[in-house]
Structures are given as structure tokens and as C-alpha cells.
Specification:
The chain has a domain of about 120 residues. The chain is globular, with a radius of gyration of 23 Å. The protein contains 14 helices and no strands. Helices cover about 75% and strands about 0% of the residues. The protein is mainly alpha-helical and about 350 residues long. The C terminus is likely disordered.
């Protein structure tokens, strides 16, 4: 099975022409009855060998962490990061294996962040919380720098999302340190910052999407992971404020409000042609509907009825996504439409 990235590499390497690649995309779109831009293609697994290599890599990384922990505090993260980089030189740079590349990138960045934090965990800073916060901020900054270096070397699409995540964590840690950890509460400080950061990451993702409206380059893959990062950062604070996470939403009024927010998410997802928001908010909607059915006495059937309603709605949306999206985008201002992924009829093979 060949991915979109393989097709791009084949064109770049001169194996096939750009016209041939375009004709192949058009043929696949015609067979699937779905425009290429609406597929949200990203490569995860090409064969079982990807899974095999990933399992072996994880075992080696666990071994590095265990050896490091047995020697000195902080060494585990450095050994994990070093091993991940060396394996990336072969499995990412030479073999271009998707799943191992994702796991190794996360291990590399995670190892860099974990090393100083592990050292801090063995040191007492009870009397100086601001110093602890500054050091944690530094750990996330180091992770962001590591992600950038990894991107320049290997160009794995998820790397930019890892960079954004560590940069957001560093920013939040710095603000919390400046305010004073003792003065910070999740509801008044952390969640609002996460929500604002989620909007910023979403805007950053759209910048990558705008640069590849036909979704034929690696930039679209980068945008996919950024949207996947931004979605829960936006959804969780919103639904927390609606009372979902505390179980406070009761009655049809609260459920309708949750559904209204989900509909807004759906319209945004259709406009930008990304499904991450819908997936991230799904658990909250399921919980709200289940609670509503239970309130009306349908305890035994609450889960089944909720799954039936939401599952049917999402399947219908998926089946008719191109047509529904065309209607939604057509209602938007023309200058905004020109910045969104291309909308149009399913292409015909050349």
C-alpha cells in the first residue's frame, strides 16, 4: 500500500510525473467518491513490519530508561533521547517508516523534557516554588528546541505539533511561575490559558493548511497533527465550563447547550475540512446524552440510545461530507473561502 507521501516522494525523485500523480489522485477520488482534500490522508502503518519495528523500538527505549534509572537520576531521559535519535537515523531518515518515526520522535522529545524534571523530582525545592517553576519551564524549552532540531533533520510531520505542545507547556509554566504556584488554580488560570493556547495552535494549524489548499504536500500532514493537538485544548475547557466534567449538566436545557456547542464544532470542522474537533468533543456529548436519557427513566437503554443517535449522525455526516461541506463553505465570505481547503466536485480520472 502506497501513501500520499510515497506519491510525493516518487514525483520528487522523478519516478513518475506530476501529471501522472494528479491522475492517480483523481482516479482514487472517483473510486472512493470522496475528493482527495476531504480524505485527511496521513500515513501511520504501511505494513505489519511497522508494528514489529515499533514494538522492538519501544522495548529498547524501556531498557534504556531502566538502565539510566539504575545509574543516576536524569540519565534515563538522556539515554532514551539518544537511542531514539540513533534509531531515527535508520528507520526515519533511510527507511521512512511512519509509525516508528512517530514513536521515536515522541520518545526523543519526551526524554529531553523528562531528564531535567527527573533530576528536579529528586531535589527539594519546597521553599522556592518559583525556582522549581523556572526549571520546569526550562525543561519544556529544551524539549521545544529538541523538537526543532529533530524537524530540521528528519522532517517528521508530527514534530511541529510536538514543538507546539512543548512551547505551550513552557509558556504556561512560565506564567504560573510568574503569578506564583500557590496562587494558581486550574479553573481560574490553567484552563483559560489552555483554551487560549488551543486557539493559537488552531490558528497555527490553519497557516499550514492555507499554504497547501489541495493537500498534496507534507504541510498538510503537519497541519493534521496540529489540529489534533489543538482540538482537545479547545474542547476540554469549554465543556468543563459547561459542567460536563463535573457531572453538573442536567436536564434538556444543559444537554441542548452541549449539543449546540458540538454543532458549532461540526460547522468549523466542515469549513476547515478537519474532523479533530468532532472527535475530541465526542466523549462529552456522549456523556451529556446518556445523562439525559437516564433522567427520563431509560437507564438500561441510555448507552444504546446515545450510541444510536450519535453514531447515526456521524455516519451520515461522513457519508455526505463533501456535499455538506460544499454548502457550508458556500455560505462563507469569498475572502475566507479562498483560505480554506479546495471545495469542488469529485475529480474524474484523466
Amino acid at each position: 500500500m502506497y501513501s500520499e507521501q510515497d506519491l510525493r516522494d516518487a514525483v520528487a525523485g522523478g519516478a513518475i510525473t506530476e501529471e501522472a500523480a494528479r491522475a492517480l489522485r483523481a482516479h482514487v477520488a472517483q473510486v472512493r467518491r470522496m475528493p482527495v482534500t476531504d480524505e485527511e490522508n496521513f500515513r501511520l502503518i504501511n505494513s505489519f513490519n511497522d508494528i514489529f519495528v515499533t514494538i522492538a523500538a519501544v522495548l529498547l527505549l524501556v531498557a534504556m530508561a531502566g538502565i539510566g534509572n539504575a545509574i543516576v537520576s536524569g540519565l534515563a531521559g538522556l539515554l532514551v533521547a539518544g537511542a531514539a535519535w540513533m534509531m531515527s537515523e535508520f528507520f526515519t531518515r533511510r527507511r521512512r517508516m511512519a509509525l516508528p518515526s512517530i514513536v521515536l520522535l515522541l520518545a526523543f522529545v519526551g526524554g529531553i523534557v523528562a531528564a531535567p524534571i527527573e533530576i528536579l523530582s529528586q531535589t527539594s525545592f519546597d521553599e522556592n516554588e518559583r525556582l522549581m517553576g523556572a526549571l520546569v519551564t526550562g525543561a519544556f524549552v529544551a524539549g521545544a528546541i529538541g523538537a526543532w532540531v529533530h524537524w530540521k533533520r528528519f522532517m517528521v510531520p508530527i514534530t511541529i505539533a510536538a514543538l507546539a505542545a512543548t512551547a505551550v507547556a513552557a509558556t504556561i509554566a512560565l506564567i504560573v511561575t510568574a503569578i506564583g504556584p500557590a496562587m494558581v488554580t486550574p479553573d481560574t488560570v490553567i484552563l483559560p490559558m489552555v483554551f487560549v493556547a488551543g486557539l493559537a495552535v488552531f490558528a497555527f494549524a490553519m497557516r499550514w493548511d492555507i499554504s497547501d489548499r489541495t493537500r498534496e504536500t507534507r504541510r498538510s500532514d503537519v497541519a493534521f497533527w496540529l489540529h489534533l493537538l489543538a482540538a482537545p485544548m479547545i474542547a476540554h475547557p469549554l465543556f468543563h465550563w459547561l459542567g460536563i466534567t463535573e457531572g453538573d449538566v442536567v436536564g434538556i436545557g444543559g444537554v441542548l447547550l452541549v449539543l449546540a456547542v458540538y454543532v458549532v464544532f461540526g460547522l468549523v470542522a466542515l469549513a476547515v475540512d478537519r474532523r479533530a474537533l468532532l472527535v475530541s468533543a465526542l466523549a462529552y456529548v456522549l456523556f451529556a446524552l446518556t445523562s439525559l436519557f437516564e433522567d427520563y427513566g431509560m437507564v438500561e437503554l441510555s448507552v444504546a440510545l446515545t450510541a444510536l443517535v450519535i453514531g447515526s449522525a456521524l455516519l451520515m455526516l461522513s457519508a455526505f461530507w463533501p456535499g455538506i461541506r460544499a454548502v457550508v463553505v458556500d455560505k462563507l465570505p469569498s475572502d475566507l473561502r479562498e483560505k480554506l481547503p479546495v471545495v469542488g466536485p469529485i475529480a474524474h480520472a484523466a
